[in-house]
Amino acid sequence: MLGEAAVTDDDASRYYKQYEEAIIACGNSANASEKSISVKLSSLHPRYERNKLEVLQKELFPKTLELVKLARDNKVDICFDAEESDRLNLSSLIFKNIIDSNVVDSNYQGFGFALQAYQKRAIFILEWLNKYLPQKNKKIKIRLVKGAYWDTEIKIAQENGYLDYPVFTKKFLTDISYLACAHKLLDSQFIYPQFATHNAHSIAYINILFQNKKFEYQKLHGMGDEIYSYFENKDNFLCRVYAPVGNYNDLLPYLVRRLLENGANSSFIYQLNSKKVQLENIVQSPLKKLDKINEVKILLPKNIFSDRINSSGLDLSEEKTIEYLKLDKEEENFYAYSIVNGEDIENDESLDIISPYNQAILGKKYYTNESTIEKALLSLKNYSHVWKNYPLEDRCIILEKFAEELETNFKKIIKVCVKETGKTIKNSIAEIREAIDFCRYYSMKAREIFKETLLEGPTGEKNIYKLKGKGLTFAISPWNFPVAIFIGQIVAALVAGNVVIAKPAEQSSYVSNLIIKLLLKAGLPKKAISLILGHGEFVGNKVLEDEMLKNILFTGSIETAKNIQKKIQDKSSIPTFIAETGGLNCMIADSSSLPEHVIKDILRSSFDSAGQRCSSCRILCVDENIYEKIKITLIGAMKTLTVGSPEFLSTDIGPVIDKEAYDKIKKHISNFKKVFNIELKDRVGNFISPTLIEIDKLSDLKNETFGPVLHLIKYKTNKLEELCLNINKLGFGLTLGIHSRIDKTIKKIISIVEVGNIYINRDMVGAVVGVQPFGGNGKSGTGPKAGGPEYLKRLCYEQSISDNIAATGGDIYLLSQTDD
Ligand code: FAD
Ligand code: NAD
């Protein structure tokens, strides 16, 4: 049955009904027992993900049992398709549940599922089945395929920084795995094997291996006809045809996928039709290529960058990772102090640290007084010249060691992020990875740009150009990326030779104390940095007064940026001011876009991190032709999001940071009439359910609302240009999403909208250091981009040294020239 994955509960019910009807129709047709229905699990539930196991056990598991039972009652076979790798553990649990149930018994052996041989785990699943099925005395069918999502698997593993790929990275290894799995199937008395392949070698091998055994081939409708026609008149030959059934809209994406699959150079069908490839090579045994096993074709995820190591991530579909991430229950008090000269400073003013989600008192934070700030400033200024001249390589090594410390303390930092700032575990992982990337990227860039350059010029002179740290740097960061942005600013300043006074947001005091301790542990001289906890304005005013202040690195709201700008305008010196502020970010979806993809991407773009990202999408602009469909589907999809405690992996949306933020967002929502959201009842904590607000015109919005609130606006197809110009009129310029399958439209939008980061046919959050340098213009910031090639340069001054070497007795090089 054709169709994309379900996005809403309604989709899932519709697909389920279609499967029911199809099973009954097959059951009523002639030769029912020769028919089989293939079921895609992702179409039966909108959240078919490992992290939703508990919900799925209640909602999806019973549905699968009912479908198998219906198939059994109608005497037709049922086979569950295999999907992406991160669903393998989950689907295995579902299949085990079916095997264990009484719908599969000696009277019904029509239940089966597809197994992908490109999975490194495939053979182990068969080994397990070969042990388990005899114990249970149950018979099933296995459709052995190679796997249809190979390129996606490689992409996901690289993006998430996995240790290794879940699938083989060489085609011949997948082919060998296919044959090895066939041998395991040969061993089994309890599995009826179904070989779904169009590859002549795989087909021939199976033909010989299974000479006296019962099995079947499977092929896709319209493919492999020539190969299979060879067998047509042979005895006991069985080939099942997998035929797509559905409407035109759903058929197109299916056909495109098949075209891509068969158009790939490595594909058997492609090679067969290619004049360049010799027949002998195509039908060669994959075992002949074993000598190529150590050739590296696809680099491991950690090695995808040529000049630095990619940060490692965690695979949240893995049982071991899930176990590892269970936050220990034992409570630990958070005491957050400023740090000056490596020492915690306990000041008079102490405030409770309150959890954003259960309002528990987690500990205390101690805010700085004036004398501590003065002490910190003095010490930093005295040390500035030492740090400026510290060997570059040593500065870089400290950053790299710090990255290692962050990796070592991954779990501890996750815990603190979750508890103090209410970030979900998944968001906390991404955040720590980003921080690690900052360390490695900036140290790599520093090695590149701090090299002295010898300039060309007249003889008798040596002219050098170089960059040097400016000196005292004030790093002011927000709470929404308490690790990544906090660290990004600090390490950039430090590696460029600046001493740093770091002022984190009040809401993330403890996490910043923890991080500075790790930085000192990594070897940073304690006089190179001070951490100052306190009220923004109080600390800001005091530090900004200092006439030796050279750089201000600010990330936060436009209002605070303007306050800082006013404060520094009367200074006698002119410090560098880098401000990265918020955005009124839009996503444009034209009528060619695929609604399911738009919805998936908008959910993440607007509601992930409870919408508390500067890059979050605030306005979805939809072409009039698909507006209603998008609106209805979006409202349905929003209902599938779980709002709750960030301690659980199943939570999609945690709390907003504090009561003040909560009230502000609620007040904004109350200004509108067309509001769609679900009321959250009896919740302790600052929870806001994902909210959609229909607006008539962009100018209804003036400011960023920093929470899970998305505005929806309809545009007329012939008014796209006007829409783009109106986006510019908002005055912000941070991120933009475009969903369209028409190149011309994409180019047009890009040519008009003035934003710093554009994302095409994907979500628009989660910029990766060095890959998508991040930052905007207009009311969204000054640039240069964080994690981009220009950032470090802005923190330095340029020095040109001209040395008259003739003055010391002449130019030796010139004088040593000979006529030869
Ligand atoms: P070949 O050309 O021999 O193999 C191509 C395959 O090799 C690729 O698809 C990929 O899996 C693998 N490959 C390519 N390059 C590399 C590389 N560099 N490293 C490692 N491996 C590589 N697929 C599913 O995922 N789930 C299903 O439920 C499913 N059901 C199917 C049902 C039927 C009846 C059929 C015929 C196919 C089904 N498929 C399914 C699709 C199937 O996975 C592909 O058709 C199959 O991979 C193509 O294999 P082949 O032996 O025909 O071709
Ligand atoms: P905020 O402006 O309230 O505070 C940011 C920091 O400034 C905090 O450390 C605060 O203590 C400090 N501060 C406040 N007043 C100050 C003053 N007078 N002088 C010096 N420092 C002062 O912002 P927030 O609520 O912490 O963060 C959310 C905002 O940050 C949103 O607007 C978001 O869009 C923006 N942001 C932007 C980016 C980006 O890269 N463009 C990234 C993250 C967050």
The structure class reads alpha/beta
- Largest sheet report: 7 strands, parallel
Ligand names: flavin-adenine dinucleotide, nicotinamide-adenine-dinucleotide
Average pLDDT number: 95
Strand order of the largest sheet: 1-2-3-4-5-6-7
Count of strand segments: 27
- Which consecutive residue ranges, at least 5 long each, have pLDDT under 50? none
Strand content: 15-25%
What is the radius of gyration?
A: 31 Å
The rough form would be described as globular
Q: Helical content, roughly?
A: 25-40%
Cα-to-Cα separation, first versus last residue: 84 Å
Structure description:
This protein is of the alpha/beta class and 820 residues long. The chain is 40% helix and 16% strand. Helix 22 packs across helix 23. The radius of gyration is 31 Å and the shape is globular. Bound molecules: flavin-adenine dinucleotide (FAD) and nicotinamide-adenine-dinucleotide. Residues 476-481, 485, 503-506, 536-537, 540, 555-557, 560, 563-564, 580-582, 614, 704, 706, 774-775, 781 line the site of nicotinamide-adenine-dinucleotide.
